[in-house]
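Bit of a strange request maybe. I'm writing a small parser for structure token strings and I need a real example to test against, not something I typed by hand. Could someone generate the tokens for this chain?
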Amino acid sequence: MIGRIAGRVEYKGEDHVLIDVRGVGYIVYCSDRTMAALPGPGEAAALFTDLLVREDLLQLFGFLSLVEKEWHRLLMSVQGVGAKASLAILGTLGPDGVSRAIALGDINAVKAAKGIGPKTAQRVVLELKDKAPVVMAMGAAVAPSPADDLGEVIEVATPKARSAPSPRAAPSAQAEALSALGNLGYGPGEAAGAVAQAAGDLPDAQTPDLIRAALKLLAPKA
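Reply from user aminoacidic:
Good idea to test on real output. This should exercise your parser:
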């Protein structure tokens, strides 16, 4: 499986980018957010990728982080959610937004993505709710540094690479807060919900602030 590519951007389409890797051009489909974050033609870029294989089709989908890639794979496991729908959800919410929406059971947030109806949004939330804490704990892997990787043609993803952040990736405040609450004895589900709500209320908060806010939400109500 092609798990990551690094090269130079040849051109950017509406929903895909062509990346030249040592003379071979790879068409990679991306969400709106990822497309907006990619540099222009002639500049270096690197993406984590997921390869969709069908009898008559091979398509690469690209992501800036392993967390985004993991959410794509999980979203596509839900009945009625294909690659296009998954990218629509990720493009609307971003990986952290998907984590929050699913942890909080926010069907309306998922439904806001283009082409996602209420029944599909409900299935996404219900089927993936137990998996939200696991993905949140992965942390937010930053985009790979393309300048360091132009000499690499393709890196094949291994099971370890798919289940853990890149060694160069710093864990997100949400992941650290989730880990801290787990160490305090809170269950994954309730911890994820509290962290997600706190992150929504305090989008720029660092780990200590998120932990304090989540603990307030978890405190017994008088």
